Amino acid sequence: QISSATSLSWSTRIQGFAICFVLGFVFSILGSALIALPKGLILFAMFYTIGNLTSMASTMFLMGPFRQIKKMFNETRVLATLGVFLFMILTLLSALWWKRALLAVIFCILQFLAFTWYSLSYIPYARDMVRKTITSCV
Question: PANTHER family annotated for this entry (predicted)?
Fold first, then answer.
């Protein structure tokens, strides 16, 4: 099924995944480092959000874009997916339009948490483990 999702070879798909994932990570770290510069809030919001989008898009190399989009919006992931996109938009709006640094950082943290929750949905029982861990800590 996976090989019918795209015409790329398996090694090319793995390379595309790795490159996009690493680029996404680098963009996110770069955005965090640029926050101290003048106009750093705008650079932070842009690079961090582009980094998360690139990381999310990296999995499209593995299963193909249409199958990935279908999986993103299935019943178990739809709220996490919408949360990621909502917080990406709010991060950008708070930095570019409203020019509120604290709000941008808060939305960035929420973006990270939503992206983490989205990513955990691909690991069997990972969300249950996180819920139980948080419940036992609280």
Answer: VESICLE TRANSPORT PROTEIN, VESICLE TRANSPORT PROTEIN-RELATED
